[in-house]
């Protein structure tokens, strides 16, 4: 039957060199037949090549010969045309795909300058939401209370919050968001195509405006780490010039929160009421949901609660959940580690750091449920902790600690990524201990795994010395901090002395973009995953998604 495939190529302009690997000599006569119709250039590699080297060498020679020739370069679009000529189905030709692309282009066609587009088309998540967030967090931070009586200050803040919310509710539904809602409310296949087209197009548009800023940010971090004002300024410009799917779902969250202003029986009201269901379905489909807005340093609690309620309903109330989170310094590979272990889709763009916190749910198969005691696992990816020296007007250093505290409080297990950079390690460890000791959940110490990243080529003896030095350093820091009221790490966190620290090699074997993926990295990540699942089985049950939603609200107010 496989020979039949080549009959479709008869009469076509096929210029490719075909390499057929046969495991039986008896099939050699078929190869001779294939050299006749159509006229394909074939290389026969059979069992006569007894070793892997003998098999690979002619393949390498053939590919090298092909690459050495001055052949005409072909774009993917042209390849699609060739595929159609050969009667090969092209996904782009399906009605759902074309319709989804059309809907996505209705949105991206309106984009000229990203910062202006966000202000005009996604207005509810801009300065007005940041102002609301500042007032809400000021209730417990009390940064500007001064000599005002506490009760009067809280009343003033409540009045300001109401005024800001009234202004937010005055924003009408924009054309962009109407098109986005239309894309979400279509069929499941259309929605999947729509989101992918939109994601790809936004990446293409953002690349031109972000490329120079990202290079500048990386250069400043490496060569001028003390230029904190410049680094913070470039970081802010990156945030302003960034446009991703998360910004549209963030707008959905704010629109849902402002739903009281939408006419009760209108078509728009019906679509807005469906938004939590769409977001819940996205979580089931493997799309991360923003938990903490990294730009406003706040959680849209009404929106998150509605999404988790819908998710609970979608999985038919079988939603006993356990939580794994990761915290660490910037660019320490937190997202990459979660993606490698669990096949998730947390953003890992070059130079782009996670802002705030994102969560993604993975369902547990039936035969594993009974072992680990839950129906699903919620993974939380957090913003990298920055050195306290990099302080911005938005109090980002406070946000870092708060996000880390929330992640630890919500989690059954916390992964702590440690950089091998000694210049930031001490400051980072101090921040980690701060987060761990601020969290007191049901009189239970956090269960932690420490991961030292980029540890390629370090001998086992040196690894043990480094582990011992790290433990001693943590114990000394705990003893010197009078607020911790403990003498050693075991008093602060729960950990297994035999598996408490992991040495994670670099993701790449060599220098990107030509570097290959490191198999050692994958093996270490897989071993860590097995250990995490074993630890989850020992963790007591903490309720379902509805309880998880309540814990989010409770812990966010307490941190």
From TrEMBL:
PROSITE patterns: G_VLIG. Residues 318-556 form the VLIG-type G domain. One of its GO terms (molecular function) is GTP binding. It holds the Pfam family URGCP_GTPase. It comes from the Eukaryota. Belongs to the TRAFAC class dynamin-like GTPase superfamily. Very large inducible GTPase (VLIG) family. This is VLIG-type G domain-containing protein. The lineage of its organism: Eukaryota, Metazoa, Chordata, Craniata, Vertebrata.
